[in-house]
User: What shape does this take?
Amino acid sequence: MLNPKPKPTKPLLGWNELDDLLQANFSKIVKEKSPSATINLNEYNLSFSEIEREAIKNGYKVENLGNDYVKFT
Assistant: This one.
């Protein structure tokens, strides 16, 4: 038997969490591979255009993968 469907309790992520993720992924040395990070926009309280503008300004390449996924290289 199932329990009642839970209500979401985790808040959406913001700039601090995105920066932490990018810093962690791009600080690693990865053998034979360029570092990258992929996020799901549905988990963030930021729009794609906001993220893209700020990321490009700070040296990242941004690719919209569709289905609300964004890849940073």
Remarks:
- Residues 15-25+34-72 form one domain.
- The chain is about 30% helix and 20% strand.
